[in-house]
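Extended Data, panel c. Modelled sequence:
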Amino acid sequence: GNRISTVRYLQGNGVRVATFGQGWPSGFLPAEKFQEIYCASRINLNFDDIGFTKYQCGKIRDFEVPMCGALMLGTHNPHLARYFELDSELFTFRDNKECLQQVRRLLSDQGLCAQARKLARTRAVREHTWDIRVKALLDMVGFTA
C-alpha cells in the first residue's frame, strides 16, 4: 500500500524509521516480539489502509499499541474516534506531510507523549480488553450465562 511512500518520505526528511514485516528489509517479526517493539518505539506508525485503495479497516494493532502503554500515530481512520480520543490518546495523519508534522510534534513534546500513552492505556484497559469485548458481543446477540 502507501506504507513505502510514507516511510521513504519520513526518511527523506531525517526521521529514523524501523520497519518490520513481509517485504521490509528487517523481515517478519514474531508475534512474541510485538510488545517489546511497541514499548521500545518512541512512536508506533500504524496504517489502517487496505493496499492502495481508499478503504480502511480497524486492526488489532489499534488496540495492542495503546494496551502496551505505547504511543501510536496512524492513518486517519474515522473508526478510531469511536474507541479513543484523537489527538489526545492516539494521533492520526491524512497524508505524508501531516505525518511528518505529527512526528516532529510528538518527538519534540515528551510531556504530550507521556500523557497520551497514559490516557490511551487507561482507556484500553477500561474499555477494550478481550473480556469486555467478548461480553459485549455476547450481550449483543442475546447470550446470557
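The mean pLDDT is 91. This feature is highlighted in the accompanying rendering.
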